[in-house]
Design a protein that fits this description.
The chain is of the alpha+beta class. It has 17 helices and 13 strands. α1 packs across α3, α10 packs parallel to α16 and α16 runs antiparallel to α17. The chain is globular, with a radius of gyration of 22 Å. The protein starts with 6 loop residues before the first helix and ends with a helix. This is Multiple sugar transport system substrate-binding protein.
């Protein structure tokens, strides 16, 4: 789910950074030489991912003789802890953001809350040309400096139930490729009881990865933000069409009835997820959902495909959900932090994680340690990841606010059937004014 920084917290950040800037620059310059190899690292994961992260931390400590103060901070970027630590002059040296946190990290960099990494990357021997082109736009700000180091990335796919396809007379070897085909399949897969309630739904556009505000606008071809002109572009035809398409599902199936139907279901890591218990036949979700299915619903027969798109949209494309390293302003030991980050995003170190979750590496040259040969899911993951249409939308200082606005508009459209054109224009003007002031 998209994570949100409150606007009051953003204002707090801007004001506090203005006060904090002079003292922090002196503090940073006096402590950034790397005299001490110890540093503080915030990571966002619990469960198996936390176990894996602790293993690579221990391996690095043993190899390099470094002491890492690793702190589990769930939603650390979005719950105010990071901003408070920066304004208080005691930030962690390194933060790992999870998935959609990359947008917030980019926004923080634009507001002066992060340290540029170029000096430390150069000292560590980093070669920017070794990174896939699709991640390099995320790394830099318009000033040309590097503020973000990607670790790895997730992509979104269309998951569909093979047995439900066959029962509905659909060919599981020929999944929907266009929005029109998706709509027809959804209708064939939907079953309604005599009392008007749902027995099964073929597809719900706004659950799972479809809930992310950028998933469907991106598939429909929306730009949202023009990096060359620095203009917010929400009220454009692809965005309008994406909202109208979602509203079509709302008018056909009633969003309140859909909400009631899904209210008792579990999340992605639950056997009660509607795709796992056969209540929803198709859903858009990340590559990691394949492992969730293996754990919680091993008997579900499914396949994956690229997200369908309209003819004018982005074919076989995805919004990247990239895990990112970054260094907050005022960090005490940025060189040691960058050294670990570069160690931590190597294929040979990430292999165990990638081989579980089917995420993708950021490097052009792949390691033999990543073992997904002849795997249908991973073949599709690589297909959409390598598409020139895939990318990171809304790389702007108002990324977090834009996500809020798009989500609010979507809800107004699907629940109240409001006109998206007027709502989009209002949000576009509002965001542009905010951006210009920043």
């Amino acid at each position: 789910m998209k994570k949100i920084i409150s606007k009051s917290m953003v204002l707090f950040l801007i004001l506090s950074l203005a006060l904090f800037g002079c003292s922090s620059s002196e503090s940073s310059s006096s402590t950034s030489s790397g005299d001490s190899d110890s540093f503080t690292y915030w990571y966002p994961w619990g469960g198996d991912s936390e176990k894996w992260d602790k293993e690579r931390i221990a391996a690095y400590e043993k190899e390099e003789g470094t002491k890492i103060n690793a702190v589990y901070v769930p939603d650390g970027i979005t719950n105010g802890k990071l901003l408070s630590s920066i304004s208080g002059g005691n930030p962690p040296d390194l933060v790992l953001g999870d998935g959609n946190d990359y947008q917030l990290a980019y926004s923080l960099a634009a507001q002066g809350a992060l340290e540029p990494l170029d000096e430390y990357l150069e000292k560590a021997g980093f070669d920017e040309d070794s990174v896939l082109d699709g991640f390099r736009d995320l790394m830099k700000q318009p000033d040309g400096k590097t503020y973000i180091l990607p670790q790895d990335s997730n992509v979104n796919l269309l998951y569909y139930n093979v047995e439900m396809f066959e029962a509905a007379g659909l060919d599981p070897d020929n999944p929907p490729k266009t929005i029109e085909e998706l709509d027809k399949a959804a209708e064939a897969l939907t079953k309604i009881k005599d009392d008007g309630s749902f027995e099964t739904l073929g597809f719900i556009p706004w659950i799972d990865a479809g809930e992310d505000p950028y998933t469907w606008p991106w598939a429909f071809g929306a730009t949202m933000y023009d990096t060359d002109t620095k203009k917010v572009n929400l009220n454009e035809e692809p965005m309008v069409e994406a909202f109208k398409w979602m509203d079509g599902y709302a008018q056909k199936y009633n969003p309140e009835k859909i909400k009631s139907f899904t209210s008792g279901f579990g999340g992605a890591f639950s056997p009660d997820h509607p795709f796992m218990n056969g209540k929803v036949a198709m859903t858009v979700n990340g590559n990691w959902f394949a492992n969730a299915l293996k754990i919680y619903s091993p008997d579900t027969k499914y396949k994956v495909a690229a997200i369908p798109s309209p003819p004018e949209g982005r074919k076989d494309a995805t919004v990247f959900g990239t895990n990112v390293f970054f260094i907050p302003k005022g960090a005490k030991n940025p060189q040691a932090a960058v050294n670990f980050a570069l160690y931590g995003n190597q294929d040979k170190v990430l292999a165990d994680n990638i081989n579980i979750w089917r995420s993708i590496s950021i490097w052009k040259e792949k390691s033999d340690a990543i073992n997904w040969d002849n795997d249908h899911v991973y073949e599709t993951v690589l297909k959409v990841a390598e598409s020139t249409e895939s990318g990171h939308p809304a790389l702007t200082a108002v990324a977090s606010e834009m996500g809020d606005e798009i989500t609010s508009i979507r809800d107004a459209v699907i629940y109240n059937h409001e006109d998206p054109v007027q709502l989009l224009q209002k949000s576009q003007d509002k965001l542009q004014e905010t951006l210009d002031n920043k």
